[in-house]
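Chain and conformation:
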Amino acid sequence: NFFKNILSAEGSISFSTQQFRGVTYVREVAEALPAVAALPGGAYNFGSETTSSIHAIAQAFASYVGKDITVEDCPPHHNLWMDCSKASALGVRFSTVLDGLKRCADDYHLHK
C-alpha cells in the first residue's frame, strides 16, 4: 500500500519520522527464491532494509516519481524493521527500501 498511497496522494500524506519499515519490492523476493531455496535450514529474515524513517523514504520516493505532495509527520504506529544479515551473509541480498521502490517505479515507467 505504501507505493500506491504515494502515487495516489494529492496535497499531503502523513508518515512518521520515528517509524521504520522494510518495504520490499515483491519482484525482488520472487527473483531471490532460487537462492533462498538453497540456504541451509533455519529461520531467515530477508527483504529490503533501511536506516531512514518511512517519512524520509516517502519524501524521497514522492520526489523521484514527480509527485508534488507534502509529507507531514505523524505519530508512529509500529516499526517493521528486519535484520537480514543472516541471509545477506549467505548471498541473499535486496536493494535498500528506497532503491527497491525506485526500481519498481522504473519497471512500470512511473519515474518522472
In short: Residues 23 and 102 are 12 Å apart (CA to CA). Helices lie at 2-8, 26-37, 54-64, 85-89, 97-107. The mean pLDDT is 94.
